[in-house]
Every structure is written in C-alpha cells, then in structure tokens.
Design a protein that fits this description.
Helix content is 8%, strand content 52%. It has helices spanning 3-19, 21-26, 142-148; strands at 35-47, 61-74, 79-89, 96-107, 113-121, 154-163, 169-177, 194-204, 209-221, 227-239, 249-261, 275-288, 291-300, 311-323, 326-337, 344-356.
Length: 363
C-alpha cells in the first residue's frame, strides 16, 4: 500500500471513529466532536481539445474530479477551527494526492471584527473564495485559471474583517499573505509577505432584490524580485421573491480581474507577458424547485500581451438538484482562441454529492 493510500485509509478510519456512537459516548457527547462532512464530484467529459490519456487533467471519459473532507468546530467561546482536505488527481499520473486546502483558526466573539490565521482562500474577487463544489459552473473562469492557477489564490497568512456600522452591509477585509502561488508570485523568500484589501457592500434594493459590489487588490514580490498585482471588481444582482422563492430565482453576476506580473516573459520567444486582464459574466435562472439553467460569457485578454492569445468562451448549463446535498449538472462549452483555426467544444456531466454536517455557503 503506497503512502497516499495509507493516508486516505487513516483519514477515513478517523472519520468513522469520530462519527461512531461509541466514540461519542466515551467523549461525553457531540460537544467534543467536530462537525464533519465529505463532498465529492464525479465527472464525465468529451471534448475536441481533451486527450484520451488518463494521466492528463482533465481528460475524456470518466474521472473523480475532486473529493473534500471538512472538519469544523468551535474550539471554545472565542475561536472556531476549520480543516478542509482536498483529494484530486495529480497531473502526469493516475495517482491521487491529498492536500490541505484550508486549515485555519478564526475568532467568533469579537464584536464587528473577525480575525483569521492559517491557510485559507484569499479574498481577491468573489469567485476565488469558492470551493470547487460551490462553483456556479463546473470550472473556474478563464482569467482566474490563468492568473491565480487551478486551485486559485490560497495562501498562509492572517486576515482581519471589519464590519462597518452602516445602514447596509459593508465589510472591509485586510490580509497579509505568503507569496507561494506559482502563477502570480512564486517568491523564493519565505520572509516576504504580500498584502490584500477587499471591500464588500451589499444593499437590499427591494424586498426581493439585492445588489452586491466588491472591490479588491493584492500585491507582493514575485520570483523576478519585482511586483505582481491583481485588481478585481465584482457585481452581483440576486432576485428571489418573498413568496414562491422556493420555485423561482434569478442571479446575474460579473467579475473582472486585471493582473500585472512584472518581469514575466514568454518561455519560448522571450516576449513580455506581464499584463493580462479578463472578465466573466453569467446568469442563473431557477424555473422550478429543483431545476436551474445558466449561461456564461468570458473573455481572456482585456488587455493581453502578444505572447498570450486572447480567448472567448461561451458556456450553457442545466442543473437538477434533488436537495441541497445532491446535484447533477450538464454543461456545454464553446471556446475560440486567437490564431487557432478550429474552435473547441466540450460536453460535461457532473454529479455533486455532500454527506455529513454540510456547512452553509457564503452569500
């Protein structure tokens, strides 16, 4: 049994032990047990640009897209602890690896302030805060994948979120972070830290309609000993009627990212590849208790250097959700890349299952 399998077996046995009645009784009740949940995503894909090689991620055919194990609990009256482990296929092999996605401690008793320390998803934009099973679509927007990487911007650091005493929801988040992200920073020095600021405002326009506006920026030294920065803006409208909201809802969300990775050049030509921006806008309509339809438009390259071709992508999705713990989604993607004659077409079918104490998603 290899080291990965041993790790998985250990984690699973730990989950079963903690969840067993015998353990709960010996621990004198659930108060000593963390809330536990597991989420897994199964995927079938067929795409003109995808390979039949199982060692590539993604590939044609069936695959386990990702699995997540989450443990969360109040430590005491002052702190909450979260540990979330992700299991996914490692590129170049058929083996799966297990990594800590988020492991952090957060205050729960300070008025109007929340302080967090550990490894967590950074508050740059709106989409970066989501885990894979909570993505609006099966994949992250193109600009997020290019600037922040497949796993997004997840770093070790500290965070302070302050809630302003306004008549609407207004929150300012300030974060100090390590600079390990390979796409954006890859700083060789562990003593260097980056900084991030995120302002979120939420207004109730009517009884049924809300507006959310977010502005954020992150900066830090990269491995060229220069500065990488990302500026982001997001805008979201959510409509759900006070009566009959179980059967109808509408969301329109847009996000723009502008990144400047100073010193970055094309590995082949040596041409500058520093400044890159992009946007994604999508709509989601719930037309029945368990059914959603969605559409998304994306552009990568607003602006873009000559060494990085622009891309335009359209996606359509239909989702069936028997409950909040299960979902099935079918997605079609059409991708046009600058300088490439043939467009890419991809069909994907995903199931999304959650078990255990499923935590609430961020608004």
């Amino acid at each position: 049994m290899n080291s990965f399998n041993q790790t998985v077996v250990f984690v699973m046995l730990t989950v079963l032990l903690l969840a067993s009645p015998a353990w709960s009784q010996s621990a004198k009740g659930k108060v000593f047990n963390p809330d536990m949940s597991a989420n897994f995503l199964g995927l079938f894909q067929r795409g003109t640009a995808l390979t039949d090689d199982r060692t590539e991620v993604p590939h044609n055919g069936f695959s386990l897209q990702e699995a997540e194990l989450q443990f969360t609990s109040d430590v005491d009256a002052y702190f909450k602890a979260v540990a979330l482990l992700g299991i996914a296929q490692e590129a170049g092999t058929t083996e799966y690896g297990i990594d800590p996605e988020e492991v952090y401690l957060e205050t729960i008793s300070l008025p109007n302030v929340a302080i967090k320390a550990g490894q967590f998803k950074m508050a740059v934009g709106k989409h970066n805060l989501l885990h894979s099973h909570a993505y609006p679509f099966l994949d992250a927007p193109l600009i997020h994948q290019e600037l922040l990487g497949d796993e997004g911007l997840t770093e070790t650091g500290v965070s302070a979120a302050v809630l302003f005493p306004f008549s609407w929801f207004s929150e300012l988040t300030l974060q100090a972070l390590s600079l390990s992200n390979e796409n954006l920073f890859a700083s060789p020095s562990s003593s260097q830290t980056g900084s991030l600021a995120h302002l979120k405002n939420l207004w109730d326009l009517t009884e049924n309609l809300t507006l959310e506006l977010g502005l954020s920026g992150v900066t830090g030294k990269n491995h060229f000993d220069k500065t990488s920065t990302v500026l982001a803006g997001d805008l979201t409208f959510k409509w759900r009627p006070a009566e009959g909201g179980k059967y109808q809802a509408f969301i329109w969300s847009s996000e723009f990212l502008d990144g400047n990775r100073k010193g970055l050049t094309d590995e082949v030509t040596g041409d500058p590849a520093e400044h890159l921006g992009g946007m994604a806008t999508w709509i989601q309509y719930q037309f029945a208790a368990r059914w959603w339809i969605q559409a998304r438009y994306e552009e990568l390259g607003l602006p873009h250097p000559a060494s990085i071709p622009s891309e335009k992508k359209q996606s359509a999705l239909i989702g069936f959700y028997p409950s909040e713990f299960s979902g099935f989604r079918f997605q079609y993607d059409h991708l046009k890349t600058q300088g490439v004659a043939d467009d890419d077409h991809t069909f994907s079918l995903q199931y999304n299952i959650s078990i255990g104490a499923h935590p609430a998603h961020a608004y």
